[in-house]
Design a protein that fits this description.
Blueprint lengths: L2 E4 L2 E7 L4 E4 L4 E2 L3 E2 L5 E7 L2 E6 H9 L9 E4 L12 E4 L1 H6 L12 E4 L2 E8 L2 E7 L2 H16 L7
Antiparallel strand pairs: 1-2, 2-3, 3-4, 5-6, 6-7, 8-9, 10-11, 11-12
Length: about 160
Protein backbone atom coordinates (compact mmCIF):
# COMPACT_ATOMS: atom_id res chain seq x y z
CA UNK A 1 0.00 0.00 0.00
CA UNK A 2 1.47 3.33 -1.06
CA UNK A 3 -0.79 5.45 1.18
CA UNK A 4 -0.47 5.07 4.95
CA UNK A 5 -2.32 6.67 7.84
CA UNK A 6 -0.61 9.23 10.03
CA UNK A 7 -1.27 8.27 13.66
CA UNK A 8 -3.85 10.56 15.23
CA UNK A 9 -4.46 12.59 12.06
CA UNK A 10 -7.32 10.92 10.17
CA UNK A 11 -7.66 13.79 7.65
CA UNK A 12 -4.20 13.07 6.21
CA UNK A 13 -2.41 10.24 4.44
CA UNK A 14 1.28 9.81 3.77
CA UNK A 15 2.04 8.91 0.15
CA UNK A 16 5.10 6.63 0.12
CA UNK A 17 5.38 6.87 -3.67
CA UNK A 18 6.41 10.54 -3.61
CA UNK A 19 7.16 11.08 0.12
CA UNK A 20 4.45 13.65 0.63
CA UNK A 21 1.32 14.23 2.72
CA UNK A 22 -2.14 14.24 1.17
CA UNK A 23 -4.93 16.25 2.81
CA UNK A 24 -8.20 14.32 2.56
CA UNK A 25 -10.13 17.50 3.34
CA UNK A 26 -9.29 19.18 0.02
CA UNK A 27 -7.61 16.24 -1.79
CA UNK A 28 -4.35 18.17 -2.27
CA UNK A 29 -0.75 17.43 -1.38
CA UNK A 30 0.77 19.66 1.29
CA UNK A 31 3.75 21.74 0.28
CA UNK A 32 6.65 21.17 2.69
CA UNK A 33 8.16 24.23 4.37
CA UNK A 34 11.66 24.66 5.84
CA UNK A 35 12.27 25.37 9.51
CA UNK A 36 15.05 27.64 10.81
CA UNK A 37 17.50 24.70 10.79
CA UNK A 38 16.74 23.84 7.15
CA UNK A 39 14.65 20.70 7.77
CA UNK A 40 11.52 20.10 5.67
CA UNK A 41 8.25 19.90 7.59
CA UNK A 42 4.51 19.91 7.04
CA UNK A 43 1.80 21.38 9.28
CA UNK A 44 -1.10 19.09 10.16
CA UNK A 45 -4.28 20.23 11.90
CA UNK A 46 -6.45 18.43 14.41
CA UNK A 47 -9.26 20.12 16.38
CA UNK A 48 -8.17 23.46 14.86
CA UNK A 49 -4.69 23.06 16.41
CA UNK A 50 -1.59 22.97 14.23
CA UNK A 51 1.31 20.57 14.74
CA UNK A 52 4.48 20.55 12.65
CA UNK A 53 5.92 17.21 11.55
CA UNK A 54 9.46 16.84 10.23
CA UNK A 55 9.26 15.18 6.83
CA UNK A 56 12.19 12.80 7.36
CA UNK A 57 10.51 11.46 10.53
CA UNK A 58 7.23 10.90 8.65
CA UNK A 59 9.10 9.09 5.88
CA UNK A 60 10.95 6.82 8.32
CA UNK A 61 7.79 6.08 10.33
CA UNK A 62 5.72 5.29 7.20
CA UNK A 63 8.15 2.52 6.22
CA UNK A 64 8.79 1.37 9.81
CA UNK A 65 5.38 1.59 11.51
CA UNK A 66 6.33 -0.71 14.39
CA UNK A 67 9.52 1.22 15.22
CA UNK A 68 9.16 3.46 18.29
CA UNK A 69 10.77 6.77 17.37
CA UNK A 70 9.55 8.88 20.28
CA UNK A 71 12.53 10.22 22.25
CA UNK A 72 14.84 9.09 19.43
CA UNK A 73 16.37 10.81 16.43
CA UNK A 74 15.98 9.96 12.77
CA UNK A 75 19.48 10.58 11.47
CA UNK A 76 20.55 11.49 7.93
CA UNK A 77 23.42 9.06 7.28
CA UNK A 78 25.15 11.35 4.75
CA UNK A 79 24.46 14.46 6.92
CA UNK A 80 22.51 16.05 4.03
CA UNK A 81 19.21 17.18 5.59
CA UNK A 82 17.70 17.55 2.10
CA UNK A 83 18.32 13.87 1.30
CA UNK A 84 15.19 12.22 2.71
CA UNK A 85 15.57 8.93 0.85
CA UNK A 86 14.70 6.01 3.10
CA UNK A 87 18.13 4.42 2.64
CA UNK A 88 19.67 7.64 4.04
CA UNK A 89 17.61 7.57 7.25
CA UNK A 90 18.29 5.60 10.42
CA UNK A 91 17.05 5.61 14.00
CA UNK A 92 19.55 6.59 16.69
CA UNK A 93 19.94 8.13 20.13
CA UNK A 94 20.56 11.85 20.60
CA UNK A 95 24.18 11.09 21.52
CA UNK A 96 24.71 9.05 18.34
CA UNK A 97 23.06 11.78 16.27
CA UNK A 98 25.47 14.37 17.70
CA UNK A 99 28.37 12.24 16.51
CA UNK A 100 27.14 12.58 12.93
CA UNK A 101 26.93 16.39 12.85
CA UNK A 102 28.72 18.67 10.47
CA UNK A 103 31.60 20.59 11.94
CA UNK A 104 30.25 23.97 13.02
CA UNK A 105 33.48 25.76 13.85
CA UNK A 106 36.15 25.63 11.15
CA UNK A 107 38.85 27.33 13.24
CA UNK A 108 38.92 25.19 16.37
CA UNK A 109 39.14 21.42 16.68
CA UNK A 110 36.49 19.47 18.55
CA UNK A 111 37.79 17.65 21.67
CA UNK A 112 41.22 19.33 21.39
CA UNK A 113 42.57 22.06 23.65
CA UNK A 114 45.77 23.91 22.84
CA UNK A 115 47.88 24.64 25.91
CA UNK A 116 51.14 26.46 25.11
CA UNK A 117 52.90 23.98 22.78
CA UNK A 118 50.83 20.97 23.81
CA UNK A 119 47.65 19.59 22.23
CA UNK A 120 45.38 18.00 24.80
CA UNK A 121 42.66 15.63 23.56
CA UNK A 122 39.73 15.12 25.95
CA UNK A 123 36.76 12.94 25.02
CA UNK A 124 33.92 12.30 27.46
CA UNK A 125 31.61 9.42 26.65
CA UNK A 126 29.20 7.62 28.97
CA UNK A 127 30.95 8.84 32.14
CA UNK A 128 34.38 7.75 30.84
CA UNK A 129 37.07 10.31 30.03
CA UNK A 130 39.64 9.56 27.33
CA UNK A 131 42.56 11.97 27.69
CA UNK A 132 45.99 12.24 26.07
CA UNK A 133 48.43 15.02 25.25
CA UNK A 134 50.57 15.44 22.12
CA UNK A 135 53.41 17.66 20.89
CA UNK A 136 51.84 18.18 17.47
CA UNK A 137 48.37 18.67 16.06
CA UNK A 138 48.60 15.83 13.50
CA UNK A 139 49.15 13.19 16.19
CA UNK A 140 46.40 14.70 18.36
CA UNK A 141 43.90 14.66 15.48
CA UNK A 142 44.84 11.10 14.54
CA UNK A 143 44.42 9.79 18.10
CA UNK A 144 41.17 11.71 18.56
CA UNK A 145 39.69 10.33 15.32
CA UNK A 146 40.79 6.75 16.08
CA UNK A 147 39.32 6.97 19.58
CA UNK A 148 36.02 8.49 18.40
CA UNK A 149 35.77 5.88 15.64
CA UNK A 150 36.25 3.10 18.19
CA UNK A 151 33.66 4.59 20.56
CA UNK A 152 30.95 5.60 18.07
CA UNK A 153 31.47 2.99 15.34
CA UNK A 154 29.02 3.55 12.43
CA UNK A 155 27.90 6.94 13.78
CA UNK A 156 31.42 8.36 13.71
CA UNK A 157 31.86 11.33 11.42
CA UNK A 158 35.02 13.13 10.38
CA UNK A 159 32.97 16.35 10.72
Amino acid sequence: MDMVNIDGYENYLFDKKNNSVLSLKNNKYLKPMRNNKGYSYVSLYKNKKRKNFLLHRLIFKSYNPDEMINNKCVDHVDRDINNNNLNNLRICSYSENNCNRKKLDKVRYKNIQILKNTYLVIINYQKITYKKSFNNLIDALSWRDDTLMEIHKEFFSFG
